[in-house]
Write a structure and sequence with these properties.
This protein folds into two domains: 249 residues, Thiolase/Chalcone synthase (Peroxisomal Thiolase, Chain A, domain 1), CATH 3.40.47; 152 residues, 3-Layer(aba) Sandwich (Peroxisomal Thiolase, Chain A, domain 1). With 419 residues, the protein is α/β, with parallel strands linked by helices. It has 14 helices and 15 strands. Helix 3 runs parallel beside helix 6 and helix 7 packs across helix 13. Strands 1, 2, 5, 6, 7, 8, 9, 10, 11, 14 and 15 form an eleven-stranded mixed β-sheet that branches. It has a two-stranded antiparallel sheet with strand order 3-4. Strands 12-13 form a two-stranded antiparallel ribbon.
Length: 419
């Protein structure tokens, strides 16, 4: 029989503030952290807005060496993991070989890899840069360095690795960690996701496919999921990390829990790198499978944390998927997108959304969809516009949709409320 798995620690680095308290304050107040792009020159690009983290490595507790050598995404992950471990009171409480690390990332150390290569190659004019390469160059090339760095930080020697499934990496990494504990392979996992993709190469990639918002004159309202005027997502960055523990570990330590992960499923539409089928069939299948694992009916959900990217095709696709999987319950359950406030941080966003769900379970508050002021008549569900909503949250569904056709869903619940 599979084991129950609980979230005991949450750590966050996000646009709008470092730490889970700053993150939750931003969400519940409906404030946006989107602004004009500043981490690189915005002028060459079609989309000139971003959701950036105001982050100083040393102020966040990193050493001078770490601030120089680690990629920005690795710095985010380390700071968020430290907060999660401290929150859980978990350090040194689990045998090292019974603990693991699972970290999600869509683009790895893109920022540092591009920066260092441009410097060494004089903006690409030279190819033979190896003699002058820093020792860290290879670690920027392989995303596995993120997981090994977290493992070293906490002395974890059990199974560890990286999940990279595009924009569902954050939910899939936590889902993988959940499965490792469920199956008895590990007792505890430090898991989550990180991405710091705001660099010229990434901005150019999304410009090419016209996926990002061009509301350059009004960056604070540029991310508009489910709104009739939506025009694409706003690129973001950040990290959310968790401590997951088996029920036995929680009871042994007397740990306080945020909630229980009840179900998780993922599908691929095998269709198109960026396109989505209008009927949302594969996402609907993932939702149904996650609810089946959770042994919950759609009517037992109190909140859906939507992928809600703010592209026209995604919002239609997700609305169709929720109607297909939840049936009549889709008409009554509140649905919102936090991307309206913190942007779309690619692989990291799924974990940031799980963090929002964990905090919603604890505080009985549903974050809003900011900037939703002109409802799209094609999208006819309750998307919690503008203002947070105070209400009991027993069961929560979070969904993710990623380039490549990845579709994922996770169900979380408050075990005390549902006992």
């Amino acid at each position: 029989m599979s084991r129950r798995v609980f979230i005991t620690g949450v750590g966050v680095v996000a646009p709008g503030g470092v730490g889970r308290d700053a993150f939750w304050d931003l969400l519940t107040q409906g404030r946006t952290a989107t602004r004009r792009l500043s981490l690189c020159d915005p002028e060459p690009f079609r989309s000139q807005v971003a959701a950036e983290v105001d982050f100083r490595a040393e102020a966040a507790g990193l050493t001078e060496q770490q601030s120089v050598e680690l990629d920005r995404a690795a710095q985010f992950a380390l700071v968020a993991a430290r907060e999660a471990v401290e929150d859980a009171g978990w350090r040194d409480t689990c045998p090292p070989d019974r603990a693991g690390v699972v970290l999600g990332s869509a683009v790895g150390a893109t920022t540092k890899l591009e920066e260092v290569y441009r410097q060494l190659s004089v903006d690409g004019s030279l190819w033979d840069v190896i003699p002058d390469s820093p020792a860290q160059l290879y670690s920027y090339f392989v995303p596995s360095s993120f997981a090994s760095g977290i493992a070293r930080e906490f002395g974890v020697t059990g199974q560890s690795g990286v999940v990279s499934t595009g924009c569902t990496s954050g939910i899939d990494a936590v889902g993988n960690a959940w499965e490792l504990i469920q199956d008895g392979i590990l007792d505890s996992v430090v898991c989550g996701a990180t991405d710091a993709p705001i660099s010229p190469i990434t901005v150019a990639c999304f410009d090419t496919i016209k996926a990002t918002s061009t509301y350059n004159d009004t960056p604070e309202t540029a991310s508009r999921p489910f709104d009739a005027t939506r025009g694409g997502f706003v690129l973001g960055e950040g990290s959310a990390m968790f401590v997951l523990e088996s029920e036995e570990s929680v009871l042994r330590r007397g740990a306080r829990v945020y909630g229980e992960i009840k179900g998780y499923a993922s599908r691929c539409n095998a269709y198109h790198m960026t396109g989505l089928k209008a009927d949302g069939r594969e996402l609907a299948q993932a939702v149904t499978a996650a609810l089946t694992q959770a042994r919950m009916d759609p009517g037992e959900l109190d909140y859906v944390n939507a992928h809600g990217s703010g592209t026209k095709q995604n919002d239609r696709h997700e609305t169709a998927a929720l109607k297909a999987s939840l049936g009549t319950a889709a008409r009554h359950v509140p649905i919102s997108s936090i991307k309206s406030m913190v942007g779309h941080s690619l692989g990291a966003i799924g974990s940031l959304e799980i963090a929002a769900c964990a905090l919603a379970l604890r505080h009985d508050v549903i974050p809003p969809t900011a900037n939703l002021t002109r409802p799209d008549p094609e999208l006819d569900l309750d998307y919690v516009p503008v203002h947070a909503r105070k209400q009991r949250t027993d069961g929560i569904l979070t969904t993710g949709s990623g380039f490549g056709g990845f579709q994922s869903a996770m169900v979380l619940a408050d075990p005390e409320k549902r006992s």
